[in-house]
Amino acid sequence: MSAVDTAFHGLRRMISSGRLGAGQRFPPEGDLCEELGVSRGSLREAVRMLAALGAVEARHGSGTYVSALRPEDLLGRLSLTVELLPLDGLLELFEIRRVLEAHVMAQAAARITPEEVTNLYGLLDTIEAGEDPAEFADHDHRFHAEIARIGGSPSMQALLTVFRSRSRHYRVFALPEGPEFKRAGDEDHRAIVAALANRDPAAAASAAAAHIARSERWLGATRPPVTEDAVDDAPAPAEGPLPG
Fold this sequence. Notes:
Blueprint: H1 3-16, H2 29-36, H3 40-52, E1 56-59, E2 63-66, H4 71-76, H5 79-82, H6 87-111, H7 114-129, H8 133-151, H9 154-165, H10 178-197, H11 201-222, H12 228-233
Antiparallel strand pairs: 1-2
Helix pairs in contact: 1-3, 6-8, 6-9, 6-10, 6-11, 7-8, 7-10, 10-11
């Protein structure tokens, strides 16, 4: 094990054990180096790795602190690795997505208010009227994010966003089959909102699972290339141009 790995796992154990709790300031650098048996350079690299994971944060002029360790924040950092997946790896995630999206849709059907139903129908009208792929991606993201907000915890919302993030790089609507795909996606959205409006959890879960399965089939069948400008400009979490 390298010195950086030793420092990383040592700090990770301090945090996971509760010795360094959420919001707590790190001990002096020298003390940590002595305890872990590593150099300052190795320790600092380990801290940078933990910062990338959202576990620690540097405060200018104050020191290094354990983050708030909110589950939704840490789960959101999974996008750093999911973004690296090739298409075949992404397709493997769709099984997980189907389960999670169906669960959230069922929860949303039980919790949704009339005002939220009206808002979703308004988003559907905007999605169906649009023709620009970039605008569609934005509205489609808002549609699914709103349902996730209604039906899921912040952690579930973050996880679903991560699972959708890589899909944004595959612009299936720019393909010759794009108009056909969009029409089918619009129909799926209508079926989802109808089930939510009827407060029918089983129908909502079924509609969501079918929608995600359709997106999976499109990607698997067309295998579009990654759009590099989307990769370069992608925030984390990202908005997906695939419906769902």
